[in-house]
Amino acid sequence: MVGSKKAPWMKIFRLPLYLLALTMVLPYYWMLIGAFKSVPELRKVPPTFIVQNPTFNNFYDPVGNKPPDHTLGLFQRLTDAPWGFGSFFVNSLIVTTVITILSLLIASAAAYALAKLRIPGRNILFLLIVASMMVPWQVLFIPNFLTIKNLGWINSFQALIIPALPKAFAVFFLRQFMTSLPDEMLEAARIDGASEFRIWWQIVMPLIRPALTAMSIFTILGEWNNFVWPLVVIQDSAHATIPLALSRLNQAFFGSSTLGVLMAGSLLASIPTVIMFLAFQKQFVEGIALSSVKG
Asked: pLDDT tens, 111-130?
C-alpha cells in the first residue's frame, strides 16, 4: 500500500523529462504542419499551430508559380536533376545503404580479428584505432579532399562512399561486444574444421546482431544527414544527396512563399530515419546495454 501511494508522486520527478521531450518534438511538429499549410496561412501573424486548410501544394502545385498565393512545389523545383527531388532521395538511399553495409562488414571483420585472433601486436593496433578517434575530422579534411581530387573522383559516388568506409568507432564498439563471446565456442568450431571466415560469418555475426543493429542506426543517421563532405566533393545534381538539395533549395528560393516547400523537403528527408528508429529502437537499446557487459 505504501508503494502504491508513493508511485503517483514519483511522476512529478519525470516532469523535466516530459518537458525535454516536448522541446524535441515541437520543432518536428512545426515542420510537419508547415509542409501542409498554404502560402497565405504560412504568412499569418501570429502563426497557427493547427493546419486550417491542408494542401499538398508545397509538394506539387498544379496552379504553378503565381504569386502571391501560389509557388512551385518541391517536385517542380531543382529540375536540373534527372528526376527532380526524387533523384536526391535515391542518391542518399544508395550512398547510405552501401556505406552502412560495407562499413559494418569491414568493422566486424576487423573487430573479430582484434578480439578473437591471436595476432602479434593486436593490442597496439587496437590502441592506434582508438587513438584515431581522438583526431578531429577537420584535420583529415584537406588530405582526403586532395586524395579524392588526384584520383579523379570529384562528382562521383566513389567520393561519397570510399572515404566513409573506415569507421574506428564501429571497430571499437563491435570489438568490445565480441570480447563477451565465449572462446570455447569458437575453439569447438575450429576443432570441427571451420575456417576463420566461416566462424566469423556463421557464428559471430548472428551473435552480435544487436550490436550491428545499434551501430547501423548510428551509421545510417550520420550518413543520411551528412552535409559538409558531400558539399565539397559534389558540385553536380546527378550525385547530390538530400542535405545538398535542401541547402540549394534554401539558397536559391528562400522567401516567405517558399517556407512550405522547405518544410516539405525536410519532412520527406526525415521520414526514413524516423521510421527506422521507431522500428529498431528495442534493438538499439539492447545493443547499447549488451556492449557494456565486458570491456
From this structure: 999 999 988 989 999 999 99
